[in-house]
Design a protein that fits this description.
about 525 residues, alpha/beta, Threonyl-tRNA Synthetase, Chain A, domain 2, Rossmann fold, 10-stranded mixed sheet, 4-stranded antiparallel sheet, 14 helices, about 40% helix, elongated, binds adenosine-5'-triphosphate, FtsK/SpoIIIE/SftA, transmembrane helix, ATP-binding, FtsK_dom
């Protein structure tokens, strides 16, 4: 039995610090923190020191005069060159201000409630907000992820993050959302090295873009018509950062998915408008199929080299002829170039189809439907390289409606009716990465998501609105040449003959024969063969 005398209480010896040492330690700790903060914020410290010096030397005028001067210079700068003012002055200042006042204050709560905080060794670990950069419309937050997180973790809660910071739209990028500038001139080499450092791959970071002011709310007026269209950059839409989104049309097919009345017409007409200069010069020919009886395109008839809107037979013929042009070019260009370059003699042929499902799914004549499907399949799989392109609009992107959806390399999603349709148009995972095309508000006609080359994250844009008057004006100023429809006359032109190939020496096969025996065999009764 254990008695009270058997128990022994062992207490560790307590080490009591003198009070002056505790106070000294705290003071030193705070002093170190202040010094560290000053080192990290040299601009703020410099300004504060300058303000104190000016105030002690000159009193209030010493503060007010520099402030007024700085404001005047800033206003002048903004008036002369607003872009550079935002880039070098207002953007960094506003970003810094919003970092401290908006994002840092809500950071811990937002990260925890959006499920991005982790626990390690019984301690909470949060993603780290490194920097905020603002421009007229966006805040770009550079965030260091917690070890073990990936950008996909942020992309899954994109909408939650937007609303956590009181915004409607956000986008998460795994790489810097801006592209490195093109440097020219004396300092180009040096600046190129700096850019390389700035834009180096940093897998520990993720970029959260929050839309502060929705630049896509106002209707976008039509863009200027380039005299010679640049097929690699046709200006069609406004981006969230107020930049212009341009379509790379060369060697690609474009699919536009959007519910009824979502603004597919504005995408197609913005494209036609950007090509108008080339239509008149003969650099590009538009072959248009409008199965809605011409409701969308009949107004622009003079712009089109070929137009079919009433008979499905005529639409099938048009597609067959496009295949014939493609075949002729393949024969002519094989072995010479890999990608066709449009010229006036050999123009780019763009087959524009409004409501493609009318040809592939809803057409009741089975034979005609099969014929159309065959031609479309050929054009989509082989036409891009030889400059016979398809641009098609569609309301319902399901596989049953459009079997060759995957043959369109470039896709645009306008407002859609179901969440699943977003991935059908833009590709798997696009909705998770922020393409909320099924949640378009009613005002967002012509607003859509596009996927840029080389980046998996979708971008939100608004296409320019081309009114009926603009279309009439376009048709009057940029009609297709009179002989535009006769491109098939070229088909008869002689194709390049097969290049002569020198015959290669045949390798010896079979058992090796002695030279003397081979000479006998190679001669016929003593005469060489
Ligand atoms: N970019 C735009 N900006 C502002 N309004 C637009 C834009 N595009 C279209 N709209 C408006 O939205 C409405 C529907 O446009 P549109 O007819 O182009 O849609 P749609 O998707 O082609 O429709 P449908 O499927 O019936 O052909 C029109 O009233 C038009 O004025």
């Amino acid at each position: 039995m254990v008695t009270a005398g058997d128990l022994m209480v062992v207490r560790p010896k307590r080490f009591v610090l003198p009070m002056w040492l505790v106070v000294l330690g705290l003071v030193l700790r705070w002093a170190a923190r202040v010094c560290w903060w000053c080192l990290r914020h040299p601009v703020a410290v410099g300004l504060a020191v300058a303000a104190v010096v000016l105030y002690t030397e000159y009193g209030w005028p010493g503060l007010i005069v520099p402030l007024v001067l700085a404001s005047a210079v800033s206003a002048l700068w903004r008036w002369r060159d607003e872009a550079s003012w935002w880039r070098w002055c207002a953007g960094p200042l506003l970003g810094r201000f919003r970092q401290v006042v908006v994002y840092r204050r809500a950071w811990q709560e937002a990260m925890t409630l959006c499920g991005l905080a982790a626990t390690y060794d019984h301690l909470p670990v949060l993603p780290q907000l490194l920097r905020v950069r603002s421009d007229q419309a966006l805040d770009v937050l550079t965030v260091r992820m917690v070890r073990g997180q990936t950008p996909a973790d942020f992309q899954q809660v994109t909408a939650n993050l937007a609303y956590a910071f009181g915004r409607r739209h956000a986008r998460v990028y795994s790489e810097r959302p801006d592209t490195p500038p093109t440097r020219t001139g004396y300092w180009a080499l040096l600046l190129g090295w700096v850019d390389r450092l700035r834009f180096r791959d940093r897998p520990t970071l993720v970029y959260l873009v929050l839309v502060r002011t929705d630049a896509l709310r106002p209707v976008v007026p039509p863009f200027d018509i380039p005299a010679v269209p640049d097929f690699t950059a046709l200006p069609l839409a406004r981006r969230e950062d107020l930049g212009t989104w341009s379509l790379h049309l060369l060697a690609t097919h474009v699919l536009i998915g959007g519910a009824t009345r979502s603004g597919k017409g504005s995408v197609l007409w913005s494209l036609v408008r950007s090509l108008a200069g080339g239509i008149t010069s003969g650099l590009v020919r538009l072959w248009v199929i409008d199965p809605k009886g011409g409701m969308e395109f009949a107004m622009g008839r003079p712009l089109f080299a070929r137009f079919a809107c009433k008979s499905f037979e005529a639409m099938a013929d048009l597609l067959d002829e496009a295949v014939t042009v493609m075949r002729e070019r393949q024969t002519r260009l094989a072995g010479i170039v890999r990608v066709h370059t449009p010229t006036e003699a050999d123009p780019l042929v763009v087959v524009v189809i409004d409501e493609m499902a009318a040809l592939t799914a809803y057409l009741q004549d089975v034979d005609l439907r099969k014929r159309i499907a065959g031609s479309l399949g050929l054009l989509l799989s082989q036409g891009a390289g030889v400059g016979v392109l398809v641009v098609a609009a569609l309301q319902d992107p399901r596989k049953e409606v459009l079997p060759f959806r995957d043959l369109f390399p470039t896709r645009i999603a306008l407002g859609l009716t179901e969440a699943a349709q977003v991935d059908l148009v833009l590709g798997d995972g696009a909705r998770n990465r922020g393409a909320l095309a099924d949640q378009m508000p009613r005002w967002a006609k012509g607003v859509g998501y596009v996927i840029l080359d080389g980046t998996p994250e979708p971008m939100r844009v608004r296409f320019s609105y081309v009114s009926d008057d603009d279309i009439r004006d376009l048709a009057q100023r940029y009609p297709a040449p009179a002989d535009a429809a006769d491109i098939l006359a070229q088909v008869g032109r002689e194709s390049t003959p097969e290049p002569a190939r020198p015959s290669l020496p045949r390798p010896r096969r079979g058992p090796l024969l002695p030279d003397a025996l081979r000479t006998i065999l190679d001669t016929d009764q003593g005469e060489p063969r």
